[in-house]
Amino acid sequence: MSVAVYLPNPDRCEDWCVMLRELLPGWTIEPLDAVQDPAAVDYAVVWRPRTGDLARFANLKATVSIGAGIDHVLADTSLPQGVPIIRTVGADLTQRMREYVALHVLRHHRDMPAMLAAQARGAWFQPVVPPATGRRVGVMGLGNLGKVAATTLAALGFQVTGWARTPREVPGVEVHAGVEGLDAFLAGTEILVNLLPLTPETTGILNAGLFARLAPGAALINAARGPHLVDDDLVAALDAGQLGQATLDVFHVEPLPKDHRFWTDPRITITAHTASLIDPGTGARIIARNLHDFDRDGTVADLADAARGY
Question: What is the pTM of this model?
Fold first, then answer.
């Protein structure tokens, strides 16, 4: 079998090739840009492929996303139709997101940004906050990552609500579904966590209209995708006091440009798309297993639904 690998960073691309060669002996694994015979390529393992990259491979059996999301694959306007897309998910990625969400919900809950600012001024600052049982946290998106994040927050004692496209049951979480359930989900939410997949329907969902329905002074945590957020609306909501703080892990352009206003806004905490950053060693093992199983059986549990966008 022949596999073409693409990541924007050539050094990281070669690292992934080395790991996959060790895990798939007898397979041909090479960087996508080094492929000499496109017709021989059976599989593509990619992160943010360029438009036209995958269309080169006339006999492609499946594309593997190096990550849980497939929006970066679907963004290719020349993407071959009907080729299955395999997501990369697993306990390692889920645990990382669990940690990230718990960390930043607790930071906002205990008003750590204000305490750090007070420390920088040499000020003795003792914020009075409710216990977790008195704080309402909303999680948008209840897929693999969102469900675990929501149950983790519930275990910490928070009042957790969830919002998903379709109804579902999550232990310890009050779930709202569909457009008709969005108002009830947002009402009174003091910390909003976005873990939605990026689809045409969810692009720009974090906007002025949504912020206005949160509790005044609410905090926003976006650990899903940059295009979920309307940047200007976030700044306006912070300026108006409708939002008090924000933690952003994802952006419209990554890396975030050095001159972007978010860098110097003390109300915004920036992390560099690390919430559920895939560990190459673990990720390569998941991908190798999925490639082996798909080549044998023609399917795997981690197949995405391209029509839904995740």
Answer: 0.93
